[in-house]
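ok trying this again, last paste got cut off
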Amino acid sequence: MFDYLQLRWKLWNLARSWDGIEGANNARMEEAKKRKAARDERYEMDQYAAQDYFEYQNDVRAAHSRFLVSKASQLIVPIPPREDKTMWDGDQMGRTSLTELGINTVRSAVRAEQKARLEMFLMWVPGAVGILGTLIGLAAILMGKK
């Protein structure tokens, strides 16, 4: 649970920083349009904005990857081999993170394992409730005979 909260906090911080970066990029672009900047200059600014967006997307994927790999390790779920280029991707900063296919594959495996563990627990609940009800009924009968 704490890992999930850390992930949500990291994603929230990334979204906030992206909002600031996007706002600054939009303001620079509007300022360039007002002063009638050259088309090449506006194109270059647009390229920098796109690069910022892709860096943001890589940060989000890296956060999800760290969370899912950690969760898979805790549950002893197999993680795709790092050599598999369909599951792992590298970015400009040298980080390797799961691709969308990798994220979906690991997420599915983690959810299946969590479901299996929950079903194992829930299998015992009806029996435990039945035994508890029997004990309460027996105690009521024994107390009523006094």
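PB: full thing came through this time. The mean pLDDT is 90.
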